[in-house]
Amino acid sequence: MYTNNDMKIEIIYIDITKIGNKADAIVNAANETLLGGGGVDGAIHRAAGPKLLEECRTLGGCKPGEAKATKAYNLNNKYIIHTVGPRYWSDPNPEETLYNCYINSLKLGDSLGLESIAFPSISTGAFGYPIEEAAEVCVKALFTYKPTHIKRVYMCIYPNRDNLEIYDRTFKNYQYKIINK
Ligand code: AR6
Hints:
By secondary structure, the protein is an alpha/beta fold. The chain is built from 5 helices and 7 strands, in the order βββααββαβαβα. α3 packs across α4 and α4 (about 130-145) packs across α5 (about 160-180). The longest helix has 19 residues, at about 160-180. The mean pLDDT is about 95. The structure holds ligand AR6. Ligand AR6 binds near residues 16, 125, 126 and 156.
């Protein structure tokens, strides 16, 4: 468990669609169309059901780094926050885009009055972001953010256990550096 301001951050090994109502919102690592895909996006659409796609069709897509919310339908959360990560090899500034994904998702969660939010490891599957670098960007974003309502963040790392260890080590090192600054 890690702490930033009033926000407690937990890194857990879980399929994000299984986290249930302890997360008010789950974040989807989507693409610009917001019309579904593979990986975590596919899993979320399967679990939420076809009404999710219907609502997504009304949103007009989403730019990399931005975030949009929908209802969660068959899932036991209040909302799904869809964000679009950078494609590591073609985004002009993948670090900034990935950072914005985390910050804009948190801002949107706060504006909806949410207390808890669950993230997957954005961009580290189909979009090819190296896991160590992605974990560094993630920890910077989560430790910089000043929440208004959010009290808990879950980083749902799945299905690769090595990735869990990498996130955990990165967060530990970052917190250690802050404390000993
Ligand atoms: N729960 C948590 N994490 C998961 C799950 C799950 N159920 N399934 C996969 N992961 P990816 P991206 C991990 O490819 O790189 C889609 O087609 C996975 O192991 O889902 O942002 C979209 O439509 C990896 O570490 O997202 C886009 O086109 C991480 O989630 C594109 O992929 C992200 O992998 C987005 O690519």
